[in-house]
Amino acid sequence: MAAATLPSAQEWRSIGPEPQQQLALAPCAATPPNRARSATKMLPRFDPGVMETYLDDMREMKIRVHELFRQHPDLLPNVEEGLSKEEHRSLVRRSLKVILQAGYSPLDLLARDPRKYFYLGECLSMVDLSLMVKSGVQYSLWGGSVLNLGSEAHRRRYFDDIAQFRLPGCFAMTELKHGSNVAALQTEAVLDTLTDEWVVHTPDEGAIKWWIGNAAEDGRAATVFARLKVPDPNGGPKLVDHGVHAFVVPLRDESGNTLPGVEIRDCGYKVGLNGIDNGAIRFTHVRVPRINLLDRFASVDKSGRYSSPLTSQARRFAATLGELTGGRVGLTGGSVGVLKGAVTIAVRYAALRQQFGPPDSPEVAVLDYQSTQLRLMPLVATAYALHFAKGLLIEKYVDMKRTREPKLVEEVHALSAGLKAYTTSYTQAALSTCREACGGHGYAAVNRLGALRSDHDIFQTFEGDNTVLLQQVSAMLLKEYRQQFSGAPLTATYHYLRASLLGALPNNPLVTHDTEPRHLRDPAFLSKALEYRTARMLFTLSLRLRKHGPRLGAFHAWNKCLNHVLDLANSYVESVVYKTFLRAVAGCVDPECRRSLKAMSDLFALRLIEGDMMFRNDEYIAPAKSKAISRLVVQLCSELRGVALNLVDAFAIPDHILRAPIGLGGNGGVGGPQPDAYREYLVAAGFDV
Q: Where does the record place the Acyl-CoA oxidase/dehydrogenase middle domain (predicted)?
């Protein structure tokens, strides 16, 4: 898989100030300037508006979308009101219709301009995650499956009704007993050649479709994944099973009544996302026309003859799932949006909140404590890193849809799997960190961190369980590795990898022991360190699998090495994210914004190296150098504290969308925590102030 390339030496020479130069520090917004230490009297040295412009070339769309909810504040869910699932579902339904009435057609964007489609999803993430997911179910999953798996006839028949929400639909893949293992789904679609119909049937309780979004209330049709079975062309008594395919199956009539043979139950309250009407569906010999097979990759004629341009069931299955990567891309963007919102709340509150201080002196801001800086500044840096990585993923996805180039399809599949898994896991952990960093007030429902944590939790599971997705990444890395060394003896493989590893680590004790900040912040050192880690993991995993395979078999050998498999995938993703961050740093023309971006990219990489024992166990980094890295991490967090408010202000989340009293920014969400944030909090609690 191709990874992001590094900036050239010429690009790095253009970055400007030397990396060891400190960023300007700013006094806490809650600390009067005459009380601030002399080292913190300088104002932040970059304009958040300039940084926002660099981050976001579609911000006008975000402004317009968020303005819709300023005009319709009744559509913004109030977590303190304790909405029932029915009330929340109604709210989400109305919100989606307002978006459509405002001229936004998500399905049109998905088909014609995917960048804007994914951007719209990220804009909605801090409005209401249930709304974002509802839109994703209707357009990316239901609509996207029809567009990507069906024919032009299917597109003509369904596109307009799906686009305008006249035909709410579902993506019926998961079953009670099977989720990640899609190839083992049990629902059947058997061709009746006498009536030219598919008979869709749930053979047992384990095959009931489960957790199906839009099913409990709204869905009138579904893309149902079922085993395609046809009569034996040789006249045998048994049906021929061609594996899992997708079929359009009507569920309800226009009055909302379920159709004959369709039984739907509500999955009930969930930990979060209760604005989504998840349901369970049982089919009892439901008949649909033969043309309801979404037949881009396979077709069946009236006689039951099966044909496909792809020669194997495995290739057809891979092609079908490969067309569904857009859902993972969308979840990655939405998760990044949540991460931005969470760190905005936490950083603003930590800059406002004052606790303790030197004797006979004013209390200091919580954000001035080293422990808080070490908690929050890496989160801010990673939010920026994942923002740029998400942009790379979307760019490659768009190119893939345009070119259909097989190698790019494979790369996007792996990158979307890895980034979705890494981003959603990171964001979920960050939500807990932000909640804890905000102390008791972070536990208040009105400040949203708890609700965001509950709603976002499932992002780690749907559209592919994160553990399964990471295994797919490592499997593809191993596939490329084996193809490169196909037929080569083990010694040749070892010598090649050894040379590669030595390239990442020059056999020079001066480098191993170099503790100078200039070296530790050198992108060449940081990139090579992360590359070394991934290369070494890939090599050692391959050796372990080769060792255990003959004795245990492939499945048990893989399971025995599973932690190693997951570590390899995360290592690869982190290397790609860092290289993408470097290109973003080099591409920023504003020198002050570029300095902050460079500091965050350094912090992102150094934190990874600091936390991985492998570098010390391999003697890649000497003990003194390891300690120097830890000191530098502390220093970078301190430097970034001075521009922390500007960094989160650059995300430009307006107050009426953020809706967390302790994290409001004033002036619509710009300019750090507003002085009367406590007043807003008191008002939210019901006090007259």
A: 170-286
293 DSSP β-pair partners: 247
Are 45 and 134 in a shared domain?
Answer: no
- Please tell me the predicted confidence (pLDDT) of residue 81: 75
Q: What is the pLDDT of residue 320?
A: 82
In the prediction, which pLDDT does 613 show?
84
Q: Of 99, 129, 162, which marks where a domain is finished?
A: 162
Q: Domain boundary residue among 312, 340, 358?
A: 312
Token output for 644: 């922390």
What's the domain count of the chain?
Answer: 3
Bridge partners (DSSP) of residue 263 are 282
Spatial distance between the Cα atoms of 461 and 322, rounded to a whole number of angstroms: 18
In this structure, the chain runs to a length of 689
The per-residue pLDDT for 40 is 40
> Which tokens hold the place of 661?
């009293």
CA distances from 654 to 47, 64, 79, 556, 657 (A): 17, 12, 18, 51, 5
CA–CA dist 282, 289 (Å, integer): 19
- Give every residue of the chain whose pLDDT is below 50, as ranges: 2-22, 24-44, 493, 496, 505-507
Cβ-based burial of 87 (10 A; exposed 0-12, middle 13-18, buried ≥19): middle
Q: Would you say 530 and 574 are in contact if contact means Cβ atoms under 8 Å apart?
A: yes
Phi, psi of 657, deg, nearest 5 = -95, -40
- Which pLDDT belongs to residue 303? 94
Q: Are 176 and 207 in contact, with CB atoms under 8 Å apart?
A: yes
Find the domain containing 209 and state its range: 169-312
Look at residue 681 in the predicted model and tell me its pLDDT: 81
- Position 322 scores a pLDDT of 78
> Do residues 495 and 588 share a domain?
yes
Q: Which class for 557: exposed (0-12), middle (13-18), buried (19 or more C-beta within 10 A)?
A: middle
Same domain assignment for residues 363 and 445: yes
> Distance between terminal CA atoms of the chain?
59
Give the whole-angstrom CA distance, residue 178 versus residue 201: 16
Are 102 and 225 part of one and the same domain? no
Helix residue spans in 404-489 (DSSP H): 406-437, 449-456, 466-484
What are the start-end ranges of the H helices in 485-561? 490-504, 509-513, 517-520, 523-552, 554-560
Determine the pLDDT at residue 680: 80
Angle between helices 326-352 and 406-437 (to 10 degrees): 30
CA–CA gap between residue 423 and residue 415 (Å, rounded): 12
Measured CA to CA, the distance from residue 515 to residue 614 in angstroms comes to: 18
Residue 37 backbone class (left: φ over 0; alpha: ψ -120 to 50; beta: rest): beta
| 47 to 107, 168, 593, 650: CA distances (angstroms) | 36, 44, 8, 8
The answer to whether residue 318 sits within a structural domain is no
For residue 274, report the phi and psi dihedrals to the nearest 5 degrees. -80, 0
- The predicted model scores a pTM of 0.91
Are residue 144 and residue 66 in the same domain, yes or no? Answer: yes
The Cα–Cα gap between 86 and 88 comes to: 5
Q: What is the reported pLDDT for 614? A: 84
Residue 151 in any domain: the answer is yes
- Please tell me whether residues 304 and 346 are part of one structural domain: no
